[in-house]
Write a structure and sequence with these properties.
By secondary structure, the chain is α+β, with helices and mostly antiparallel strands. It has a domain of 147 residues. It contains seven helices and two strands; from the N terminus they run ααααββααα. A hairpin with a 7-residue loop joins strand 1 and strand 2. Helix 6 packs antiparallel against helix 7. It is rod-shaped. The two termini are 42 Å apart. The N terminus is likely disordered.
């Protein structure tokens, strides 16, 4: 392949690779990155509390608080209230006769109401004296859940800081590489005009195109790392950072 063919091939592949990048988040332009402003860490930390993990710990704490309330009321089980009520009709049929009295029948009936109300008390000593320990254990469970949530949040903060630092670094590098790439693109256009006008040969054009290609590859690699860091930061902090 001669130098002219290489130059033509490079001219084809540069827009080809640029077109491949225009998918999803990759459709963001250099201006989008130049204008990108990351929120403060405090804002990201606060938004991270909207995570499903925090919701889980909150539900668990409510469950533990409910169990604690039940345990504190457990003394009520020592008392039993009972009552019964009956209502009905009572009837008696009787027959009587003797030598001087003919046989006759007699019926008598009455309505009857009967009720009973009472309270009983039973005190299992093992259950009674262990009540304080059960309440204390339940308090510890509630506190343990709270500590677990705080521990998770601290660990999440560390992950956010790590991704935030990486995003800031990659963003700074990308802005510098964007400037270098823009300068290389201008040089490439000028070189193409010089080549068409016969001012430079195919070898010089190929060399300039090669520099442009290397800068483009480096730019795309940095942009890929930045996008990865930003997406991970969005997931960790529950904060939308990119308009896409």
């Amino acid at each position: 392949m001669n130098r002219l063919s290489i130059a033509i091939a490079l001219s084809f592949f540069i827009p080809f690779f640029s077109g491949m990048a225009q998918v999803g988040i990759e459709s963001l332009t250099s201006d989008d990155y130049l204008n990108l402003q990351l929120p403060s860490l405090e804002e990201l930390f606060e938004n991270a509390k909207n995570s499903a993990a925090v919701d889980y710990y909150k539900v668990k704490m409510e469950e533990e608080a409910s169990a604690l309330k039940t345990e504190r009321r457990s003394w009520l089980k020592y008392f039993r209230f009972n009552s019964t009520y009956q209502w009905g009709l009572m009837g008696i049929n009787s027959a009587f006769s003797d030598t001087d009295t003919p046989l006759f029948y007699q019926y008598s009936g009455a309505r009857q109401n009967w009720y009973n109300v009472g309270v009983s008390f039973s005190l299992p000593f093992d259950d009674f004296f262990d009540r304080g320990n059960r309440i204390h254990r339940q308090l510890l469970k509630t506190e343990a859940t709270k500590v677990e949530m705080e521990k998770w949040h601290d660990e999440q903060k560390m992950r956010i800081i790590e991704m935030y630092s990486k995003a800031v670094k990659e963003l700074s590098v990308l802005r510098l590489k964007a400037e270098s790439l823009a300068f290389a693109n201008v040089q490439s256009e000028l070189a193409q005009q010089d080549f068409l006008n016969g001012k430079i040969d195919a070898g010089e054009l190929s060399q300039i195109k090669s520099i442009q290609m290397n800068l483009l590859e480096s730019y795309e690699q940095t942009r890929s790392e930045l996008n990865k860091a930003l997406l991970q930061l969005e997931v960790l902090s529950k904060t939308k950072l990119l308009n896409r």
